[in-house]
Write a structure and sequence with these properties.
The chain has eleven helices and no strands. With 213 residues, the chain is an all-alpha fold. The chain has one domain. Helix 7 crosses helix 8.
Length: 213
């Protein structure tokens, strides 16, 4: 089973119901959002690990702060609202500042139909769960930074083989002149800015999935 399979399985049933309750939506809507948010997080972590010193930083953070213990009572963890402070900090490391996060969330929402505010609330709830899983894998498999990067790259590749769900109410993709047009919001021809770093890889994956659907 892939990382996505295992996490989706763990977040089904009672845990999925608790996530839906925390978000104030029905379980089907929560499930659609989870199936979009998880690839975002795994892709971002994989890209982050590929960056200079990124794998070492992630490896050290997992060893120090994420032993996987929260997975032993995932329902209870979610029922208590998770650890949004930790989740927000994680997102800052892997997705960049608030502007970068919002830009990425908005574009993902545009092309999947999943509400942007829902994704914004879900991501900090899921981020510690994903790192808890990675921390447990690192301990069990004895990953060094290089092996951790290889594992994340493999999971990203496996994600690319999966169809991404698209909400039934999703609007048609807007014409944009490709990814550059979408990310160049002010039309000045420049792709400088935090959103490009992670947004390009995530959006490329999302759009590839939507074209094939």
């Amino acid at each position: 089973m892939t990382m996505m399979d295992i996490l989706l399985e763990q977040m089904g049933g009672s845990a999925g119901g608790q996530i839906a309750q925390q978000l104030g939506v029905d379980e089907r809507t929560a499930d659609q959002a989870i199936r979009v948010a998880l690839p975002m997080l795994v892709t971002a972590l994989s890209r982050n690990a590929d960056a200079p010193d990124g794998a070492t930083s992630l490896h050290d953070a997992l060893a120090r702060d994420h032993d996987g213990g929260l997975l032993d009572d995932l329902v209870g963890y979610v029922a208590q609202g998770g650890d949004l402070q930790d989740g927000t900090a994680i997102l800052g490391h892997v997705l960049g500042g608030r502007r970068a996060q919002q830009a990425t969330v908005d574009e993902v929402s545009q092309h999947t139909g999943v509400d942007a505010s829902l994704l914004s609330r879900l991501l900090p709830l899921l981020a510690p769960i994903v790192l808890a899983y990675l921390g447990r894998q690192q301990r069990q498999q004895g990953f060094d930074p290089g092996a951790l990067t290889g594992y994340l790259n493999e999971q990203e590749t496996r994600i690319q083989e999966l169809p991404l769900p698209r909400a039934e109410t999703a609007p048609p993709a807007r014409p944009s002149g490709g990814l550059t047009g979408m990310l160049d919001q002010d039309g000045d021809g420049s792709l400088a800015g935090e959103a490009t770093k992670v947004g390009m890889s995530i959006l490329e994956r999302l759009l590839k999935g939507n074209r094939g659907g």
